[in-house]
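Checked the freezer inventory, then went back to the computational side. Two predictions to log before the end of the day. The first one is the construct we discussed on Monday; recording sequence and tokens without edits.
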Amino acid sequence: MYKVSIRFFNDRKVRAVWDEEHCKWWFSATDIVRAINNEDDYAKSRNYWKYLKGKFVKEGIQLVSATNQFKFEAPDGKMRKADVLDAENVQLLAKHYPNNRANDFLDWFVYSDNSLDGQSKKKAYTLIESGLLDSMEPGTISSLQQIHAYLFGGLYDFAGQIRTKTIWKDGTLFCRAEYLPENLRMIEQMPETNFDEIVNKYVEMNVAHPFMEGNGRSTRIWLDLIFKKRLKMCVDWSKIDKKDYLEAMRRSTTDARPIKALLQGVMTDRIDDREIFMKGIDYSYYYEEHED
């Protein structure tokens, strides 16, 4: 059972699998071509990869062997074997791409894992295996602080600490710092016995925005923790479009119905499925990427 992860380049998925034996990520070659070419058609991308592979062989550039294949979900929903590349060969492919469209992809690929978000995302992947979530009391401020500290420890000097400054984002004023401690105590006491109550609590926590940075990524994990402990359910974030989610959360300050409708439609009982968790992390960090 391999860990499956998803990166996003210009809103195109680049899927990867973790190889425990060799301790490395393998990336879907077809996804890379599709991202570089910004191609909607999966079949065209697959065929172009086949063309590139043959072209590189003739030029003496060996990117992939028959043994470097893993199963990914195809457009028809079936799991099919596909060529994969490790990080070194992804960079080799980009550097020898027939046109300059791969330059931006290469910059993104090299930078993405070493950025602050990339490092935090690696921490998030290990969170489920740490056992920390199982020990937390759902819906508490303390559990949210522990999640934030885990994700951003060593990256932000304020990891896990409630902010003491008032902040704005995209024209939205979050809870003023002088009122924040009392507001958080009120949110902590909100009930969480059913779906509506849990989402209401999540919305209020988003409005409070207790940390200087990293609120969205932390509170989505916190929300899933409540769902798992109270309802034996969690959110399949991979089924929620980024723009739909951001718009629903923007509206949630005055109307929680859109975010409730989005979440209600993608609830799953696969609470112990590692792939669901990892996809959730991938999409959670993707939601935070700024649009051009």
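The second is the one RB wanted added to the comparison set:
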Amino acid sequence: MDFIRHLFEGQGEFILRIVIAAACGAVIGLERSRRQKEAGLRTHIIVCMGATLLMLISKYGFFDVIVRDSVQVDASRVASTIITGISFLGAGVIFLKGSSIRGLTTSAGLFSTAACGMAVGAGMYVIGIFTTIFMVTLQYFLHKYNLSSETIAATEIRIVCYDKPEIVEKIKAYFTENKVEIEEFTIKRKTDGTLIYDTVVKHLKPNELNHITTILTEVPDVMEVSCNQ
């Protein structure tokens, strides 16, 4: 029991700081999600929690090695290189897919995972384990209930049709009738008499996407419809 008490001693406030950081990240991320930005709720929460954990480690994680055998050391130098290295690694998993950015949450997760590992390595077991469990729990529920911007990003739809008069207006009318918001679109006319209509719309759920695809294939002069989420 003394060992457990020693682990939790002085770290209760640290847990409170991490929870407050998650709440702050959620407030900022919610606003970003409502504006359809790629870095949304989950990404902001994870980054804010990770930054808080790193700050706690920086302030309180090296007291046991600041002075050893009357020699002053700076163990935080290794920690700072870890942060730099994981930042490069995180940047490597971010990529552009169509008109939307993918991998932001994964990158943020790598950043915060490194922070959890640093906490455990520094002997701050309680906040390291707590942050891990808290982060996984938030990730699960935010993904399950579609609350992050990654679930409300963009859907790309390509329509190949005969280049007939007013065909573009007909397609737009079908989108409007089904309350699909068009973010942007491009039109490419080919020499074989066909037209390619590429459009980016606000993210559609699988059942909505299937419904729209079925409707579009029934539009006169439409030859092919393909989607990319």
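For RB: The CA atoms of residues 30 and 151 lie 13 Å apart. The beta strands are 67-68, 71-72, 95-97, 100-102, 154-162, 182-189, 194-202, 222-228. Let me know if you want it refolded.
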